[in-house]
Specification:
Length: 200
């Protein structure tokens, strides 16, 4: 559990738009080309192959499927969302964090899952099921927002994984840091397993 929370904390901290001491956040999404003792090469969703420096003690987590019905009032979640044509926000994905991480990385900030998307790490203060679907009211220190959860969006939570899961073709989400010289590094990788891919 300590390892899980430590790895998840890296994800939350590097996901925020704050500058880090050793560079700026650079979220990499794609599939693994190769892995060595010191480097992970990923074919990014934008096309280019990216080499990412990794440490010997690289933290690796998987994701497993959950259900919108699993989200309850008081849970701490990360929700990527985008404004809808009808008004308000619609969720693109939901990550349910372990209970012990409640409050980590709280807030709502720009995200790059899709153009115009935001990420909100917040406590669910209200979870409503209606004829129009499910919606969540998310509360964080600066305010709150209500997000609709369309049918079929990915809802996941963390799962066990190891370096052995970083195989060619596996889908990954890498919260990396980009140094001034353009090189990328990370201490944490989220990898897809059993057909469930990291949706964040």
């Amino acid at each position: 559990m300590r390892h899980l929370l430590s790895a998840a904390a890296i994800l939350v901290v590097t996901a925020t738009p704050l500058l880090a001491a050793d560079g700026t956040p650079a979220r990499v999404r794609g599939t693994i080309e190769s892995l060595s003792a010191t480097s992970l090469t990923v074919t990014s969703r934008e096309g280019p192959s990216l080499a990412i420096a990794i440490p010997a003690d690289l933290a690796v987590r998987g994701v497993k499927a959950a259900e919108a019905a699993d989200i309850k009032t008081g849970d701490f979640v990360g929700v990527a969302s985008i404004p809808t044509a009808a008004g308000g926000d619609g969720a693109l994905e939901v990550l349910i964090f372990p209970a012990a991480m409640k409050g980590t990385g709280e807030g709502s900030y720009p995200w790059d899952l899709q153009e115009g998307s935001t990420m909100t790490n917040a406590t669910v203060s209200n979870a409503v099921e209606s004829v129009d679907g499910r919606s969540l009211t998310l509360t964080y220190p600066e305010g709150s927002k209500t997000v609709a959860l369309p049918e079929g969006i990915p809802v996941v939570t963390f799962d066990d994984a190891s370096r052995a899961d970083l195989v060619k073709g596996a889908t990954v989400f890498v919260p990396a840091q980009k140094a001034a010289d353009g090189t990328l590094s990370t201490a944490f990788v989220v990898v897809g397993k059993n057909g469930v891919v990291p949706p964040m």
